Amino acid sequence: MTGQHEDHHRPGVLTGYRVLDCSIAMAGPFAAQRLGDLGADVIKVEPVSGEWQRHSAAGGATGNRINVSFLSLNRNKRSLAVDLKSEAGRDILRTLVASADVFLQNYRPGVAARLGVDYESLRAINPDLVYVSISGYGEDGPYAQRPGQDLLLQGMSGAMLSSGRAGEAPRAAGQYLVDAVTASTAFEGVLAALLHRERTGEGQLVTVNMLDAITTLQMQELSVFTVGGLQQARSEQPHAHVYIRSPYGTFKTADGYIALAFPPLKTLGELLGEDSFLDMIDEEHGWTHRDEIFAATSRHLETRSSQHWLDAFAAAGIWAGPVYGYADLLEDPQIRHNGTFVTYDHPTEGTVTVPGFPYKFSVTPPRIDRGAPLAGQHTREVLGELGLDVPVIEGLLESGVVVESA
């Protein structure tokens, strides 16, 4: 393994690996953060003005010196702020590549080659490098130059037309769904490529694109369409999924909403006092009478409280659950039991509570060793590790090739 550098982190699954994160926005930085959570030494190589996400605050949550968007996607990283448009800046990056295990970028197609940091160029420096390139639509092809933006990819993926009412505008997910699944896909790709390298000593190029990530996420739905030949047809009632029988969705109650998932119609009819359900066959009438069943269920559920129905459904063995807001989620006893959220102290942003880790390890647990860095916070430290002496580092700082945080 290359990258046998000093690691100040608590040992983790990826301790001893060095990752160069040259990505921006969400998908790339989120993937790199997951690697850092597992102990990798992630160096965020960003422009001297700071990565784009530093200047774009989701929800207007600007923070003190680091906005919440950047804070949420860049923990467990060190920041090297360097001008890659300069030859001296590119020399620094090439020197870093020699000690790296993973290089991750999501430049627009063609940019990496212009900067001299494409796979073939970096492979010549470090043959066993795992090089990850993330794009919107693919490395080449008719859409290669299109902007890879989450909402646009959601619309193109077909997913928006798998829920809601016929005739109404399709609704996007309430999350940056495509960015998130692309990040997870890139994270998986890195781990698989590193495992291959451990077995064979061979590095490789890993390409991930947002269009394929959100398309393959719909493995079951698209197979129903392509193999089963069933059309993606929305109906008049707001079903939550076009390929699941009724009733399936969110329903208004007397004091809120609950989610209800394809209950046995006879059992549901008995509980609601809806005689029309009693002789229905789940896998027949649940499809042929979708809107009728959904509408009747809605009428009944509006008459009592959410808790009344949740208790009644639980007693009857019917799958139902609450519809939370974020405040409810934070207080949920299972969330608290799981330790889903973590709280830590950030040097500029104070005490912060954020989602933690989606996995657990009995021997090498993930943890937060450092919060998101200021732009160039670790410039001197990283350059020192490359063997540059103080006068050379001072010269680079004075010339503006690199910067450090104030």
TrEMBL record:
Molecular-function annotations in GO: transferase activity
Keyword Transferase assigned: yes
Keyword entries, A-Z: Transferase
InterPro entries: CoA-transferase_III_domain, CoA-Trfase_fam_III, CoA-Trfase_III_dom3_sf, CoA-Trfase_III_dom_1_sf
Keyword Isomerase: no
Coiled-coil residue spans: none
Entries under Pfam families matching the protein: CoA_transf_3
Name of protein: CoA transferase
